[in-house]
Amino acid sequence: MYEVDVEYIKANRSIHQMSNGIAYYNYEGTHFRVFRSMDDAKQWLENDDDSLIVFETDNEDCLDHYLLDGAKMIKSNCDEDSEIDEICQECWDPDCSGCN
């Protein structure tokens, strides 16, 4: 997976689209929010609808783990003892019982 697009909202705020379609919002390199798509990220910016966020963290390593291993969701603290929960690879929803 690799980055395919970046839109700068301000000098220290940006939305990044990944090759698998998901997108993340980078706030000053200190807080990250992940969305199912670039459209969801833009809608969140316009409407402040937190239900569109599928994952958020203050840890860039945690973001990298989440983006690189789409089948798993790493807990926010991302330490060695973090639990790893399976999530649906189709819709990225941790509460999904499987898309068909």
What does this 3D model show about the protein?
- The structure is a single chain.
- The chain has one domain.
- A hairpin with a 3-residue loop joins β3 and β4.
- 19% of the residues lie in helices and 35% in strands.
- Strands 1-2-3-4-5 form a five-stranded antiparallel sheet. Strands 6-7 form a two-stranded antiparallel ribbon.
- The protein is of the alpha+beta class and 100 residues long.
- 19% of the residues are buried.
- Mean pLDDT is 75; it is low at 71-85.
Radius of gyration: 13 Å
Q: How many structural domains?
A: 1
Q: Distance N terminus to C terminus?
A: 24 Å
SS strand fraction? 35-45%
Give the rounded overall mean pLDDT: 75
**Can you summarize the main beta sheet?**
5 strands, antiparallel
Within the largest sheet, what's the order of strands? 1-2-3-4-5
Order of helices and strands: EEEEHEHEE
| Helical fraction | 10-25%
Total strands: the figure is 7
Helix-strand makeup class: alpha+beta
Shape: globular
Helical run tally? 2
Low-confidence stretches: 71-85
What does the secondary structure layout of this molecule look like, with pairings?
Layout: E1 3-10, E2 13-18, E3 23-27, E4 31-35, H1 38-47, E5 53-57, H2 60-68, E6 72-74, E7 84-86
Antiparallel strand pairs: 1-2, 2-3, 3-4, 4-5, 6-7
